[in-house]
Amino acid sequence: MQATKLLNLLWVFALLSLVAVGGGTxxxxxxxxxxxxxxxxxxxxxxxxxxxxxxxxxxxxxxxVLVIGYRLAGALxxxxxxxxFFIPDCFITFSVNRLWKHFEGSPWRTAIQRGMAxxxxxxMLSGTYTVAKISIVDFATGAIAVAxxxxxxxxxxxxxxxxxxxxxxxxxxRAW
Amino acid sequence: xSEAAGTGVAQAAPARAQVGLFSLFKxxxxxxxxxxxxxVVAYLREYIVSGQRWMxxxxxxxxxxxxxxxxxxxxxxxxxxxxxxxxxxxGAFAAAVGILLPxxxxxxxxxxxxxxNRQNPAVNHFLGGVAAAxxxxxxxxxxxxxxxxxxxxxxxxxxxxxxxxxxxxxQSLIMVILVVGPIAVLLYHPQTHKGGAPRPMRxxxxxxxxxxx
Lengths: 176, 213
What we know:
The complex is a heterodimer. By secondary structure, chain A is an all-alpha fold.
């Protein structure tokens, strides 16, 4: 049972790592589809809360996948998910970066970089939409999202502060 | 320290002054520990280009373009590329471990605390607001990046096709990448536009880093 789950986590996160075009946000819709929709391993509430934990830690926010692994299969789950999600991409990036130099000036290199940029942005928007669907549940959460967007789009503020303020607001609004 | 600067060749890695593996690790560890709220790329640029001067801005942006085209977290990919260009394979390894280690410790500590308190309403309320704020943050990042990179009509069509396929038609990510990806790349291959490339609607700005991750 445990071995089957670890194996499933291994292939799910290895697969997600291979299709993470445009960064971690890009895989959120697929991750939710598989973990919440297909396997029913997590509820939307748990997925949202674990995603939020990633937001309050330093470094890449997608390190939250480790908590998903831990939640589903304990410490070994966290290790398996971490290796599956990070090792393939590191290896691909390392190899392709070395090969990439040889294609300097190739029309294909330019075409891939230019063509994949809008795909990546489309995927980021889809990931954002997924988080919005499961986290904007009332007026307060909607207002927080709009306010944070407005502030960050037009002003240079450290997002970490706004993230913590957002959490404090829902805490205060719902606690009273 | 500055022997490499005299050559003026960004790609000529061997001319670079030797950077200690441990100093390299320490810098990435520092960035991994202080980059709260995402935006790791901006911290990398500040430390690697402006602070340590291990790379010039052109090479950094070149690395960023490669790092964000390939699958994976952009901050990790970029760390691997920078580490490799500065200190080879060992440097790539040290950079990746350094950027991920502090966040791993924090996220696992928070995750274990969460597991013990996930029925606590205060925790649920707080994390609910964090997720909502994250939506605002993600939207701002995507639009800022879009504003800089999307210059042709076909750019917007590709963005829309990708978004609709994933979010509204619920197609699998693999299918979308395998179908939309090659079409997008072919649209940008010069052979596609024999009569001369279509004029962009506006100039494509280089990727700048305010709020960009």
